[in-house]
Fold this sequence. Notes:
Layout: H1 13-26, E1 32-35, H2 42-46, H3 50-64, H4 74-81, E2 82-84, E3 90-93
Magnesium ion is lined by residues 13-14, 37, 41.
Amino acid sequence: MKLAVVGKGGSGKTTTSSVIARTLARGGLAVVALDCDSNPNLGISLGVGDEETERLVSMRQALDEGEESHAPTWDTLLSRYGSDGPDGVRLAVVSRIDNPEPG
Ligand SMILES: Nc1ncnc2c1ncn2[C@@H]1O[C@H](COP(=O)(O)OP(=O)(O)OP(=O)(O)O)[C@@H](O)[C@H]1O
Ligand SMILES: [Mg+2]
């Protein structure tokens, strides 16, 4: 199952996303949360913590500035750019790919 949460600024996207993710994870499902917001603070709501959330945001910034390379596979992305919250939700702060290359 894949869920995307979108909406107007301040409408509760981050809060709703974290409640859904944490509830599903507590129920035993393997949950991956991808924060692609321009102001990524899902890690705070997921309980990952300020410092760790900031670290993930910095890595995305480095990617966007070309200082880091994109992960070639989904597993690598989650291990390299992800972090676990207290309920077992795996969070990754992700970017977009402007010029995708084959593979
Ligand atoms: N169901 C709710 N009832 C009351 N307040 C809520 C509810 N959901 C979220 N809020 C509050 O509304 C504010 C905005 O919530 P949130 O940060 O989740 O929105 P957002 O859509 O992610 O905002 P942004 O566009 O800035 O990323 C927060 O202060 C949050 O605590
Ligand atoms: Mg938000």
